[in-house]
Amino acid sequence: MQMTLIIIIGLVFSAIFLGMMMTTINEKTSEYDDTGSFTDIQTRVSNDTLTIAWETGEETQGTVFYTIGGVPGQMVDGSFKRIHSVDIQALNTSVEFYIEACHISGECITSEKRNISMT
Question: Cβ–Cβ contacts within 10 Å for residue 93, how many?
Answer without folding.
Answer: 13
